[in-house]
């Protein structure tokens, strides 16, 4: 059968329908525009966010790699190089430690040799600039300006020479004249001196040793599950001392990817619900018109074509406008925001929002599909309704009251007798179409959950949260001279006077000094034997058996330290110790805590045993402590780490036990966290000391600035995503509720006609809104929090404890309640302005 | 002697329709006595529904006054009008206009509950029995026939014991038999509960059941007679 050529009339009718229903079509157009804009922005911002996250990892890791192995054997290297899944491998060798230069006798910088691949490929993205060339001669070094400054060599440049003392792999202190062959800046270990291969070869270090070799692996894939990572680690047959660490990016790539996928899914779901609701309400509201068209002889196919054409025109315009708006925001505003936040474009680590055809295609496809799916049901309704039915059609918000069973009605009746009539009617409205109500609540809850999730992650991963010092102190000051091997070079820098001056600074709340003394741990068959055996197995290349005799006879060759902490610090030590410490026993000097030093010993192995310490140089002065627990807290290591254990006791026990003790570091807590003024005063105090160079410090404020710089504009973009998603959920609610009230205007007018006052109507509508708000918040508070927890833990590679941020949650709750109350009120008020009760009844009933 | 319960003076309602002015009511002076059953008849667009809506406080006049039970409606605000409607007036619409989510019982007692009053179950029971709805209490409007729905609308209109029942083409959507049934019940109910009824219809047969018939044409009362006084 030949089809009638009715395209002309359909086109004209579609055009006239668009023209005559400007208001309705404008809403549909705006809905589509908004959805396209949101999807486009989410995709673009999402990609930018992902890129920036990668950049952040490159910056924090100092290179682009997925895993690093400590110590590498030839066999392992061959295996990795032949592995097709590994894109790049780079080697770095620690080849010595600089201890002094002509201007600074307490330098702490490592000499590192990086092979070509590491320097040119893995490390390159983390560098901002390089001047000169990588060292080739044995005495050449490459440094950063920061490194030069830390070594007291500020002002030197390429071609300049300096003399430095460094300790080689044999432990010998060598003095050498170095020439600066190049300078660089960027991210990574900036204090290090990059040296030549020739230097490494002469250093006495070997990359097979854990203390020297770092083997960097960059995999040719994005995602690697924990199982795959474990399988890979196992396949390398790592030695006891060897370790392989995956970076946060690779180690958590799957959860991150799934998290992003989930984010896009929720966005798409929200956008779908938004379009569907508006399309349904707009087409359903006009069903009578299509019924009339059938009356005058229009076929179902023609109605479909008519609606299809309208949707194509409105949808096409909406999608185009949405993408244009999205482009303007993404490509014009975003780079400005990034530039304004101090991210340098055009250099390593810069982020540029690039043109993504796939994003446009995806946006078009999704929105077009949503428009199609969203209008299918209403089109079906318009086509299937008979002309007679259409004439009497009254759009009802969801449900089919006539389809309910008597039993259900009776149940509703019995239930309905409780509470005021206004509340019952509001509740009935929600219950009338549970599916639709659930969709609105879920849609809003989805947006809110993403907001909750993002704000929780952003808050917990914010620089302020992840930057922590020991005991969350603001500054930790150390005496670097105590790290020197030669006791003659030790100076007492953190003296009583210094400490009292420190305490006297107005912004300083508390100072936690930590003292130490040198000790030996004489051999005994129980604990000392067990410890040393495990220590050699873990950290040394030579077997313990070869050295046991020397240890037994000359324990002074195996020095260690005893660390004394103040009473105020005990609660923190307790927190980081795996067993309960008896406070009285610890403070009376009976018990001690041992620093684990990475050994495979458990608390069960050591707790209850005794450790005997002898004062260094006075072996007759001995004291025995019972071990109360072990800790992994590196803060208690003391200035040097010996082979025997580091023994942590209370300060008075150290003072009573050893004659030669001194403060090696002090934690300082400010009255006001991150107080720049106080910090400057303390630093001035340090600088005023003639031995200023021998101090070092770890500042929480400086770390905060560094992390903030590394994170760039990531938090802002994350917050943007969260806000857009929350907005989608709320817009969906706004659209659905206004549509709902619009479709109920006759019902509301009838209620008005029989005496419902404006106040009663408002109370009913606000109650409905409150039920939606309560439902959404309930879903967010249960499912949302559970999902947030799961997503959070999967991305929590900084191991920050889970905590829902109170501020955003309270803000979100207040905002959602306000929106849920205000929207129905405003929609109700708008409805009243449309005309008198009679006009509104007539308008809908056609009477 | 019966008192006047409804009185209109020079009632006008003009609408602007494009460049034309439509005079829906053009100076109507009209009175109704207590417990009277008045039918207003006229052609479509004659202004009869507009008059009814003015009396019920659903619409505001362009000029003129409406007095119901001695009170002038033009001085009332929206809130007062709503309270006036639920206490003084019971509406019956052609399309029944029941609340689709409420069952029969809830629909009937809705105006009482909106007024915050305790439902007089005995009185409501009497109404429902009179209107033969006692077995349909828990049914939703969508489950009832047109005649049944209109009977629910009548029950709702009389439940709050208003002085006046305003019925706008109550039989317009019903077949002849159902229409007569509903009218019979409306008349019985109004008599039993001593209410005044103003009915709008274009069906002369239905109008014959009223105490008085008022003709309205082009917004003016053209003939008001006591055709069936005493009927």
TrEMBL record, chain A:
<feature type="transmembrane region" description="Helical">
    <location>
        <begin position="314"/>
        <end position="334"/>
    </location>
</feature>
<protein>
    <submittedName>
        <fullName>FtsX-like permease family protein</fullName>
    </submittedName>
</protein>
<feature type="transmembrane region" description="Helical">
    <location>
        <begin position="769"/>
        <end position="792"/>
    </location>
</feature>
<keyword id="KW-1003">Cell membrane</keyword>
<keyword id="KW-1133">Transmembrane helix</keyword>
<feature type="domain" description="ABC3 transporter permease C-terminal">
    <location>
        <begin position="263"/>
        <end position="375"/>
    </location>
</feature>
<comment type="similarity">
    <text>Belongs to the ABC-4 integral membrane protein family.</text>
</comment>
<dbReference type="Pfam" id="PF02687">
    <property type="entry name" value="FtsX"/>
</dbReference>
<dbReference type="InterPro" id="IPR050250">
    <property type="entry name" value="Macrolide_Exporter_MacB"/>
</dbReference>
<feature type="transmembrane region" description="Helical">
    <location>
        <begin position="26"/>
        <end position="50"/>
    </location>
</feature>
<feature type="transmembrane region" description="Helical">
    <location>
        <begin position="438"/>
        <end position="458"/>
    </location>
</feature>
<keyword id="KW-0812">Transmembrane</keyword>
<dbReference type="InterPro" id="IPR003838">
    <property type="entry name" value="ABC3_permease_C"/>
</dbReference>
<feature type="transmembrane region" description="Helical">
    <location>
        <begin position="254"/>
        <end position="275"/>
    </location>
</feature>
<keyword id="KW-0472">Membrane</keyword>
<feature type="domain" description="ABC3 transporter permease C-terminal">
    <location>
        <begin position="721"/>
        <end position="834"/>
    </location>
</feature>
<feature type="transmembrane region" description="Helical">
    <location>
        <begin position="717"/>
        <end position="734"/>
    </location>
</feature>
<feature type="transmembrane region" description="Helical">
    <location>
        <begin position="354"/>
        <end position="374"/>
    </location>
</feature>
<feature type="transmembrane region" description="Helical">
    <location>
        <begin position="812"/>
        <end position="832"/>
    </location>
</feature>
TrEMBL record, chain B:
<dbReference type="InterPro" id="IPR017871">
    <property type="entry name" value="ABC_transporter-like_CS"/>
</dbReference>
<feature type="domain" description="ABC transporter">
    <location>
        <begin position="6"/>
        <end position="229"/>
    </location>
</feature>
<keyword id="KW-0813">Transport</keyword>
<dbReference type="InterPro" id="IPR003593">
    <property type="entry name" value="AAA+_ATPase"/>
</dbReference>
<dbReference type="Pfam" id="PF00005">
    <property type="entry name" value="ABC_tran"/>
</dbReference>
<comment type="similarity">
    <text>Belongs to the ABC transporter superfamily.</text>
</comment>
<protein>
    <submittedName>
        <fullName>ABC transporter ATP-binding protein</fullName>
    </submittedName>
</protein>
<keyword id="KW-0547">Nucleotide-binding</keyword>
<dbReference type="InterPro" id="IPR003439">
    <property type="entry name" value="ABC_transporter-like_ATP-bd"/>
</dbReference>
<dbReference type="InterPro" id="IPR027417">
    <property type="entry name" value="P-loop_NTPase"/>
</dbReference>
<dbReference type="InterPro" id="IPR017911">
    <property type="entry name" value="MacB-like_ATP-bd"/>
</dbReference>
<keyword id="KW-0067">ATP-binding</keyword>
<dbReference type="GO" id="GO:0005524">
    <property type="term" value="F:ATP binding"/>
</dbReference>
